[in-house]
Amino acid sequence: MDKISLLQERKARITEAGKELRAQIDALTDENSFVELSAFSFSKNDFYGEETDGEGVITGFATICDYPFYIIAQNFKVNCGGSSKANCDKIAKCLDAAEKNSTPVIYLLNTQGVQIGEGVTVLEGIAKVLMRATQLKGVVPQYAVVNGEVYGSLATLCAIADFTFFMKKSSLAVNSPLVLAAKTGKDVKKEDVGLAKSLDKTGIPAFEEEDMAGVKAKIAEITEIVSAPLIDAELNESFPALNETQNAATLAQIFENAVETGSLYAPEAKTYLCRIGGIAAAAVVFDGGDKPVELNADILAKVRTFAEFAACYRLPLVVFSDVAGIVPCCCANNSRVLKEAAEYLNILDTIDTAKIAVVYKKAIGLGYSLFAAKSAGFDYSCAFATAKIALFEDEKGAEIEFADEKADKAALAERYGDEKSDPVNAAKDGYIDDVIEPQFVKQYLISALQMLVGRTGGKAEC
């Protein structure tokens, strides 16, 4: 037997089976950097009676902007990207290598579910992959790309991953539209159940991109922040516009190299991976527009997940508050809002990442306790001179504090705001470290970050 000819034949067959997917991998990674692993994996599907080229999944390592990554890509051209015990073993092997070499992982997912004929065996394989991915969480960053239609149990990888990218018209669901249609007796379209815009309650979609070039750029930006916690930057900038207008858009100008994550859901809490004076940070900006944010389970889950990522990769957490506590409605009362608040507090209590609070508009009631209080673990807290910190909103506070006084309600509310909500009151008791002029906020933050994080990078100094 001519071994060279056999090798060439097998290589050609594998390459042809993954031609489109390999082009996508090339678009995602640096030129000629992809090195395939376990390329000559072949198993026979008993149901279809044919060999599965490369197990229907391509694995390997490559670089993106010179940073190393492991790549796991499902090949839809082979049995519709169906999961099997063999291809799950191949994925798990790649995850083992990622852990051993402390290297981030990128999943390119495109599957219709499991390969028919595998029975319980494939379920063991899926459990193995999901558990290995879970064990990697907080060890190395994981990125999932919904690269077409992703149905079945391996859709769970998108929930495990730190950041999930949706391509335009990509769809994600545990149960496919066909299964849902059969179950409900209704015509179920993928646009209604699986697009990024249809999953705004799940907390899964972090980004929606047009192509692999967009995914590559975002991953490179995030990696730069996580991997290089300190770079040189301007340290004495001021922002006079903040003295006139305090809102999320104006505030975001103080960030450098900012990447907003999760903008497709819970937009009242904007989450940014960024730099402040060259120091890598994770920033949360509450943005309620004309009114302070009223918390619900979705908002708190988003902040909790983001704080957990910051903790895992030793990024200081900076929270800009405009929060008035939990939304007063029956649906919130009968939801996970309190559980999410408790789990968020647990993150604050168990991490040693530097935590900084800036009350830039309002911190009312539980909004203060969760996102500005010293007793919640914030190392440094400051407030804009224009901000308000109080037990109640002005109108409600005036009704309680000045119940015996006969005067115009608006006048009493204004008086309550001036007398009871002034952040100087909290500063007098030592709960707020400083009341500052808004335009100088970046200078205060840089000073605090240099002290709390240290000039050596992302680890808090002992």
Unreliable runs: 455-462
- How confident is the prediction overall: mean pLDDT? 87
**What is the percent of helical residues?**
25-40%
Structural class label: alpha/beta
> What is the terminal-to-terminal distance?
66 Å
Taking all Cα atoms into account, the compactness measure Rg is 26 Å
- Tally of alpha and pi helices: 18
The proportion of residues in beta strands is 15-25%
The number of E-state strands comes to: 19
Principal-axis shape equals elongated
Largest sheet: 9 strands, mixed
Q: What would you say this structure looks like, in words?
A:
The chain is α/β, with parallel strands linked by helices and 462 residues long. 38% of the residues lie in helices and 24% in strands. It has 18 helices and 19 strands. The protein has helices spanning 3-17, 19-28, 85-100, 120-136, 157-160, 177-184, 190-193, 212-227, 241-244, 248-251, 297-312, 330-333, 337-350, 366-371, 394-401, 409-420, 423-428, 441-453; strands at residues 35-37, 42-45, 50-53, 57-64, 67-74, 105-111, 142-151, 163-167, 171-173, 205-209, 256-261, 269-276, 279-286, 293-295, 317-326, 355-364, 380-384, 388-390, 434-436. The strands form 3 sheets. Strands 11, 12, 13, 14, 15, 16, 17, 18 and 19 form a 9-stranded mixed β-sheet that branches. Strands 1, 4, 5, 6, 7, 8, 9 and 10 form an 8-stranded mixed β-sheet that branches. A two-stranded antiparallel ribbon has the order 2-3. Helix 11 (297-312) runs parallel beside helix 13 (337-350). The radius of gyration is 26 Å and the shape is elongated. The model is unreliable at 455-462 (pLDDT under 50).
